[in-house]
Amino acid sequence: MKILVGLPTYDNTIDARLGLFLYGARRDNLSIDVKTRQLSVLCWCFNHLWAEALNNKTYDYFLMIHADIVPMAPTGWISKMIAEAENAKAHVLSAVAPIKNTDGLTSTALETAAHMQPRRLSMTEVMQLPQTFKAGDAAKVFGWSEHAEQRLLVNTGCMLVDLRRKRDVFETMCFKMIDGMERREGKFVPTFVPEDWDFSRQAIANGLTTAATRAIRLVHRGMADYANDSAWGTMQADMRIGQ
User: Fold this and answer.
1) 76: left (phi > 0), else alpha (psi -120 to 50), else beta?
2) Class of domain 2-227
């Protein structure tokens, strides 16, 4: 199997541990190409890497990994991610990544026809889910099992895309942020849809399956290392409005 690992950076720096673990992954009997791109415009940077994967038909997978995400395993983590995607029959699989604060919320979220405002999963809730999960699993935790149009919105921080299937569909997709302005109760309020949730929605709208996993132990590096392997944080559930 041939994999393009896309590593976007803002300033051409990455956590040294990530560099070591990417090097260690070369022992997995996989053909791995690591490409980096330095741009301050986030989605343009992502799309440069995405275009490389789409233009080279020999790639079986595209793996996006952000410069501040560190998979905490010296070897085997890419192979494990591929295996989890296979078992889940997922076209897009993302490793759960906590947001870089003490809340314990993650950037993995669920929305339904009844709840169009995405609700983030907390690390407390993630630990109640199967190791690798889909929208229906998250809906059970939220008590939304009866809701129609369940959509699991996953993060791009450590995201695997299976290009062996539905490549023609992926060729119609790209990374983009959606900014806007709404008037609420007589006042203007800025709105924003992040590129990861938009990419998830594109995938789902095209009949693709998204899934998330904590099988890949990682930390999101900020003022501290925010890990995805335990229940923690001041917020056990995302009850915030307008976030």
Assistant:
1) left
2) alpha beta
